[in-house]
Amino acid sequence: MVAPPTHTETDRVDEREWAEFLKSFTSLHQERSYWVPDAQVEGTIPKELEGTLLKNGPGQFEIGGQKVAHPFDGDGMVAAFAFKEGRCFFSNRFVRTKAYTEEQRAGRMLYRGAFSAGNPGGKGFFNPFKLDVKGIANTGVVRWGGRTLALYERDMPYELESPDLQTLGTTDADGALKDTDPYFGAHYRITTDADGKRTLIGFSSSEVGSQNRLTVWEFDEDFNRLTRTQEVFKGAFGFYHDFAMTEKHYVFLQNPIRLNLYKFVTQYMLGKAGVAECLEFDTSQKSLIHLIPRPGKGGMRGTYETTPFFAFHHCNAFESADGKTLILDTVAELKGVIFSAKVEGPDTVYGREENRGSLTRLSINLASGKVDQRVLIDRSVEFPSVASTVVAKPHRHIYMVGDRFNSPDTWGPVQVICKVSISEGIESLSPKVSQDVYYPGKSCWVHEPVFVPRPNAKAEDDGWVLAMVNDSTTGQAFMAILEAQDLAAGPIAKIHLKHHYPQALHGSWSPDFIGPDPKQPYEPRLHDTRGVDPLVYA
């Protein structure tokens, strides 16, 4: 197993490495479905690993030959790795959103993205005064109540058919999402009760004048709606991308963001900038932590101030045993955020300390209102998650992607899977932590890790960690299956794909097997979306 390098002051991501990483943002135009041959599996897939890993992310980075300016604006593509009887079935398809369908038919860009103007060539005006943002279904994916849903920040979910992931269209889940006001967000939480019963919690965020309206829903395992909660807070641009929750509260971080009105009028209105590029980190504001009571759980409403920072993603939250403190672990960009930073050119996102994520613990005294915070490790990290059994409860393990250097003053593209474990002080502001790191090599770039519990697991981390890895030396990708209790030992299995896979955003595990009967013959499918009619399925 390759050990992560030791940091020195001269260590930086050089131009060659940067070019290698950017290969991860190459379109995958081919849609496939096939049983992965045994010859492409290195090691052994555990037979007790049954279910499906779903992944979502941008899969197409150009339209009609014109490159998309920011990869986050790429069209959504969902993939499934379905495991059964020690075998893996792979499938991927683009989500046929309204915008994707129209642009593929036209052979050119028609819509603006959230992070870029979508302006072909960057010259002239592009859709001036047309302020809608392209719905691309490229951020989250969840399997719930027998439905597979592709999610995006500002749209309704798109339902996908099993097992081939064909798009059925937008859905309100038979009325469960009928009043989503008007979106269903890309992030959600799934809680597990002591009896094994699971609950899906989702939310939406929408601007109402100078305020922001948050709506939270809870659903049972059959997708019946259990509760609906709505709160309105001052400040329309809190950028509520994610949320956390405890047994008593929903936890929302209001980021200190302001709208650059001059840029909005002179650039966004005229089609020269994306709407996100008009948002700016504002150090004159505080970060606000809003607690919203979960219906029937005995929580209390409250807003707590802390020093300004920005966070896209949260790890988990919980109340202390005595009920006096609420702990929130998050990935904090302590020096702010710059939405206009790109992945290419001199102003790269990884070259700006404002966009560097640090694993940070916030401890909220519910009586005094005091908020303390502490960075837990030196390594820069992102895309955190915990085991589903401890969502909204005290956790000991967090899984993330990270920089290969465990240093407070460097960061770069994602090259390790990092597990942070708390051995002492689970409720403390400064718990005793350790890191377990899987480093696939200098030319490899990792995707978000997903923890999968072993059947009848005996510990919080008794299971596997699944993560896609792009290898820029081969131009191909592989799925790594790691023992969660020993990441550094390396994969117990590598599932090699004979093609690359674009750098994805978020994924999830479902105990449902979303694939064909392994005992029946299956004809592999291959469809190139650049064909005569890219909307027709093969």
Automatic annotation (TrEMBL):
The protein's name in its UniProt record: Apocarotenoid-15,15'-oxygenase
GO biological process: carotene catabolic process
Family as reported in the entry's similarity comment: Belongs to the carotenoid oxygenase family.
Comp. bias intervals (Basic and acidic residues): 520-531
Cofactor comment text: Binds 1 Fe(2+) ion per subunit.
PANTHER family: BETA-CAROTENE DIOXYGENASE (PTHR10543), CAROTENOID OXYGENASE (PTHR10543:SF138)
Keyword Metal-binding attached: yes
GO molecular function, one term: metal ion binding
Cofactor(s) needed for function: Fe(2+)
Start and end residues of each stretch annotated as Disordered: 512-538
One Pfam family recorded for the sequence: RPE65
Domain of life of the native organism: Eukaryota
Keyword Iron (UniProt): yes
Binding positions for Fe cation per the UniProt entry: 187, 241, 313, 506
Keywords: Iron, Metal-binding
